[in-house]
Amino acid sequence: MLRFGRSELFVFLLLSWYKEVNSGFISSCVYKTNHTDIAKVLGEKQDLPEDCIYYYLVDREQKRTGDGYHLLLQPPPTEDRINVTVDDVLIRTVDLSWHDDRLSWDESEFSDIQIFNLHDAHHIWTPQFGDETACTMQSGCMSKINDVEISSSGTVSARVTFRYPTFCTINYYRYPEETNDCCLFLSNSEDNHDIKYNIHTRAKQSVEKQVAVSKVEQEPGVTVVTTVDSSVWTVEDRTIDVAKIAGVRSEFLRLCVHAVKRMSTLRMALRVPVTIATMLMLVAPLFGDLKTQSYVKLVTLCLQTMCFLFLCSIAPENGFGGIKPKIYTFYEFLFVLSLISVMVTLMALALSRVRRTVPPMHGLYLTAKLLNKFLCCIEPDDSIAYERQFDELPEARAANPHPERDYTMEWRHIYIAGNNLFSGISFTMFVLLTVFDIV
Predict the structure, then answer these.
(1) What is the pLDDT at residue 225?
(2) What are the CA-CA distances from residue 346 to residues 80, 297, 307, 315, 371 (Å)?
(3) Any transmembrane segments, and where (predicted)?
């Protein structure tokens, strides 16, 4: 009589072979217990041919070694390391396969059955995996092998389902949509069995799966893990490889995922207002004379400052880990550009108030006049008094009855053209950098 089962439930099965193997093993494989009762206890209908194969393998191992439990307790007899092949990887599961000669059979003896799934009541040796943390089942961590499939050649395929904390590194360069690289190191928890991993799946594969927020609750004798919400993190791809740690003889299966935080609403809230304010500043020449431009630029500079204060208010309390986010570089660029633009306009306004008695170069004056009239649609207005000239006072005119010729208006054309040209170049550069997301 053999004892098998889980959760203190034991089902006693007796197998009897009434004929020789070459006359047909399946036809003589029967239970001496009631099949209906077994199905009722186990909650499922057992497949009789598969059970016959399993107990045939157990009986063969019993005759060979004198202990049928070797299939469960001992790894495949091999002088070299056990080769475990990684066939596929998902977020929380890994598909594995390995070879065990003790589980091979002749297909012709079992109605050409080549593959069968191992029932929960049947046990064979499987590699046991653990991680490098001290997380226990009471904390919600676990590693379980299920969906075990055996082929007639002795190849075993199984799926490892696990839940462990990972080692993560956050990159804040694209804040608020930062990236997170998390890695988990799975190793064989049996020190006396050395395992060699062979990766037969793509090392890197796209996933695009949203991360779920789980809640772990401790109840008497059981840990309940429930999904309560979907987080803002999305796994873009996963990577698998074999790692070797110094001082450790065995190999580690390293599973890494690359996750990205999807915060498109917040990203737009941080970029759109300050972008609009900067565009208004750079097209200030369209609002009128230099005084009006100065007021517009000072107002937009205040708006940029408010946007920057909002950005600082939502920053992580622990900082960005020594990495300056790209959006901070974007704000720095806008502040520097805006400050230079304000200084250029104020300088042009100040120079326009200075009386000039020396004429400018004729070609430069014509170019400035053409730029102001046809390209920027703005030129000096004679009715605009930037500042009352000293020579306009009666006392000054009486003291100097023959004043020198005034070229102030011609120079104003040049100053305004320089301000407009700087605004045009800055606007073009700003649009290109914003469209192509360079800063």
Answers:
(1) 64
(2) 81, 10, 24, 34, 20
(3) 268-288, 295-316, 328-351, 414-436
